[in-house]
Amino acid sequence: MRQNTRQKILEAGAEIIHLKGYNHTGLQEILQATGVPKGSFYNYFRSKEDFGLQVIDFFADLFASMAGEIIRDESLTPLEKIARMLDGFMDFFKSKDYAYGCPIGNLAQEMGDLSPAFREKLKRAADKMVDTYRGLLEQARIAGEISADLDATETAYFIVSSWHGALVRMKIEKGQKPLENHKRFIFDYVFRR
User: 166: Cβ–Cβ under 8 A, 6 or more apart, which residues?
Assistant: First the structure.
């Protein structure tokens, strides 16, 4: 029961923070969404900052889970896995009417300069995203899908950074075109042998 309540608070709070941001999300709003009394919140989290740091872990685990299902699919080549991941994220943002963006990117823009604890946690989460793409790119190089000269680490950083920029543009345009442009560009120009 204890873990279920903690998870319930994390899931509801993550959803609100993803849409509204950390600073625009009040503790009372999270408690109201979960039906958990204020005193119980502090059984699971030392402070709102502690909660926010655990929300970053929640988002990083969610990304890893979504990506992991695709990565484990042995029927796909490494580049097909990247395409499937991008398509899956595009479908998610479409279902949210292009309002959410990347939770890690959003929090980095909002909190990266304000809190050393947030900055360090966000860096680790972003590095995990980079590591996911780097691993797939190394596999793609071995499989001959991309040039042997393409640096997997630099390319993975570029993919993640470009994706975050495309998400900012997506939110402005309220449409999928920037995400499609991101995918087309990396497949047509970056991955081209």
Answer: 178, 179, 181, 182
Distance CA 133, CA 139 (A): 10
- Asked, for residue 19, whether it belongs to a domain, the answer is no
Structural domain count of the chain: 1
Q: Are 49 and 41 in contact (CB under 8 A)?
A: no
Give the domain extent around 123. Answer: 48-190
**CB-based contact 109:17 (threshold 8 Å):** no
**Residue 28 included in any domain:** no
Q: What would the two tokens of residue 19 be? A: 């849409």
The model's pLDDT over 69-114, given as tens digits with 9 standing for 90+, comes to: 999 999 999 999 999 999 999 998 999 898 877 778 777 877 778 8
Task: Count CB-CB contacts under 10 A for residue 62.
Answer: 15
Domain CATH code at residue 156: 1.10.357.10
User: How do residues 37-52 score in pLDDT, each as one tens digit?
Assistant: 888 888 899 988 998 9
* Any domain includes 161: yes
Confirm whether pTM is higher than 0.70. yes
Q: Judging by beta carbons within 10 Å of its beta carbon (0-12, 13-18, 19+), is residue 172 exposed, middle or buried?
A: exposed
In a domain, 14, yes or no: no
Those residues with Cβ within 8 angstroms of residue 47's Cβ, 6 or more apart along the chain or in another chain: none
Instruction: Please list, in sequence order, all residues whose beta carbon lies within 8 angstroms of the beta carbon of residue 114, skipping any fewer than 6 positions away.
Output: none
> Quick check: 141 and 152 in contact, CB under 8 A?
yes
